Amino acid sequence: MSSGEIKLSVKWIAVELLVMALIGLVFGLLGPFGTYAMPAALRLAYWVGFIIIGYAIFRPVSISAGWLRETVGIPVWAAELLATAVAALPLTFLIGFAISGMRFDPEFLGDRFILLYLQCAAIGFGIFLFMRMLFGPEERLVKSAQQDKNMEQPPEKPASEKMGSTETESKKPVRAKLHDRLSPGFSSPITALGVEDHYVRVHSAERDEMLLLRLSDAIKEMEPMEGMQVHRSWWVARDAILTSKRDGRNLRLSLSGGLEVPVSRAYVTKLKQMGWI
Q1: Ordered strands of the 250-255 beta sheet
Q2: HSE (CB half, 13 Å, CA atoms) of 24?
Q3: Distance between CA atoms of 141 and 149, rounded to whole angstroms?
């Protein structure tokens, strides 16, 4: 699962909202940026409310920044700075609208707007750093969500009850939707997908074949096989991974059939968190 497929559990959303509310209370008590002159109750409501609203804006943009980071390989801090710059803009408009008495004030679109925008961006990036220190990398959310999903699944049947069906299924190769695009002789399980110009080379342990297709579209057709994109140009099937090895500062996966696939640094932690290497 890539970080672009992250689905936060209800538990994690509740935890993050609670932390946001606590941060809002702290800001409300301190009264920064000239808000201390407001009545205490109004000041607390102001900060808690806008921190929660900011979370609702910043969180989806932050997830999108994770997709961008994996796609182009930019550092985490650069992706979050970009997300902060984007998300702070609508939040600034909302706060400015409230400050202006719930009406649009053209005079607000000057130096006051720029100052408020910088304040929103600084608070947003500061909260990101705080949340990362508190909860760690985003991959922990993926791992927690997977654990929750595993707990929700019913217990497996005893081996005696499923032995017959298991033996039959183990003899049948896993067939992905992408097999329908391949030649009839390509019946082996797909081990990897690699980009070559405008084509995708489909690998198995015995053979490979080229398709005029985008990697993202090919990955969508890999269901029900379990796998992960590990590089901007590579997707691998989990069952095909034999070992991993270091090549200087880089990591490579050795797959069944002898193929070796490079792993981008952005994916190394995720592979370790999910127990694939």
Answers
A1: 241-247, 250-255, 260-263
A2: 21
A3: 12
75: which 2 tokens?
């550092």
Structure tokens, 38: 């407001």
- Choose among 92, 141, 126: nearest CA to 23: 126
Query: Rounded to an integer, what distance in angstroms lies between the CA atom of residue 114 and that of residue 117?
Result: 5
- Per residue in 1-60, pLDDT (tens digit) is 334 334 446 777 888 889 999 999 999 899 887 788 889 999 899 899 989 998 898 988
Q: Please count the residues of the chain.
A: 277
The C-alpha atoms of residue 70 and residue 234 are separated, in whole angstroms, by 12
Asked if 117 and 92 touch (Cβ cutoff 8 Å), the reply is: yes
Q: Is the pTM of this model over 0.70?
A: no
Cα-Cα-Cα-Cα dihedral sign, residues 49, 50, 54, 55: negative
pLDDT at 9: 62
Phi first, then psi: give them for residue 248, nearest 5 degrees. Answer: 70, -125
For 110, residues 6+ apart whose C-beta sits below 8 A from its C-beta are none
Residue 153 phi, psi (nearest 5): -75, 140
